[in-house]
Write a structure and sequence with these properties.
Radius of gyration: 18 Å
Number of domains: 2
Shape: globular
Distance between the termini: 40 Å
CATH class of the largest domain: Alpha Beta
Bound molecules: biotin
Strand order of the largest sheet: 1-2-3-7-6-5-4
Number of strands: 12
CATH superfamily of the largest domain: Bira Bifunctional Protein, Domain 2
Number of helices: 7
CATH topology of the largest domain: BirA Bifunctional Protein, domain 2
């Protein structure tokens, strides 16, 4: 029996955040990201959150689907209207990965790794993913294109005990890691609190008023994939090499076995 959500308890726990009273729950939906994009277009406010028990057409990165069996996972989308250039949108993905990692650790004690840009892994199997979809405002002359809004979709495999055959070898869940079920509501609250913290830090950093370690540095510490990992990259025809850190825009660099220094733009990074 799936655990349920008490939205007034969620609102109380989030009262100091942009998400207070803005979390909506749906038993079933095609995709919370699609719903959030439509709502954003119709003027929904910054901080709106949609969470579903089930998605019938969950979207993943790179045109893939997202397995969203009823009741076992957290499937949510967060609408943000940040003062941010489109060129900075990758930072939102990285910041969300950090938020998910710290929320999972705080609730369950499980140490999740982050594969650039934002796959959440336990022992190299995927337990969560993040899909950021953006819209830009009209751009004027030389000024950089600004984000009108960003929808951050987060899928976490929380209490899944099994996966379809085609996902068995690549997917896992928090429950499969340590055998016990977890409260989706507790993780949801911790995740949104952590997201608020990471987004505030990022906004301060972009306004250059930050006095904490930058996102680039925080991500490098949090992810074992950023430096020294032998990888294969399914991009630009495919190549292999060793990761050598993030560039100033947050893209992953790989010293290729072909002698070139590559910049990974879209993901598709696998162990090799
Ligand atoms: C990935 O491929 O790693 C990203 C998966 C993102 C899945 C989440 S589940 C909630 C939200 N709604 C969607 O349709 N997708 C995202």
């Amino acid at each position: 029996m799936a655990d349920s959500f008490d939205l007034s308890a969620v609102a109380a726990a989030l009262s100091a955040t942009a998400f207070a009273d803005r979390v909506q729950h749906l038993p079933s939906i095609g995709s919370t990201n699609v719903l959030a994009l439509e709502a954003a277009q119709a003027g929904a406010p910054h901080g709106s959150v949609w969470i579903a028990d089930e998605q019938t057409a969950g979207r993943g990165r790179g045109g893939h689907g997202w397995y969203s069996i009823p009741g076992d996972g957290l499937y949510l989308s967060v609408l943000l209207r940040p003062q941010m250039a489109l060129a900075d949108a990758l930072w939102l993905s990285l910041a969300t990965g950090l938020a998910a990692q710290s929320a999972i650790a705080a609730v369950t004690g499980i140490k999740v790794d982050i594969r650039w840009p934002n796959d959440l892994l336990i022992k190299e199997k995927k337990c969560g993913g993040i899909l950021v979809e953006t819209s830009t405002g009209a751009s004027h002359s030389e000024a950089p294109a600004m984000l009108r809004y960003a929808v951050i979709g987060i899928g976490l495999n929380v209490n899944h005990q099994n996966f379809p055959d085609e996902l068995q070898s690549a997917a896992t869940s928090l429950r499969r890691e340590d055998g016990r079920p977890w409260s989706r509501q507790t993780i949801l609250i911790e995740l949104l609190l952590a997201l608020e913290t990471q987004i505030s830090l990022l906004e301060e950093e972009l306004r250059e008023v930050s006095n904490t370690a930058g996102l680039l540095e925080r991500f490098t510490v949090a992810s074992s994939w950023v430096c020294g990992k032998r990888v294969r990259v399914e991009e630009a025809g495919g190549y292999t090499g060793v990761t050598t850190g993030l560039d100033a825009r947050g893209f992953l660099r790989v010293a290729g076995d072909d002698g070139k220094l590559h910049t990974v733009l879209s993901g598709g990074v696998r162990p090799y």
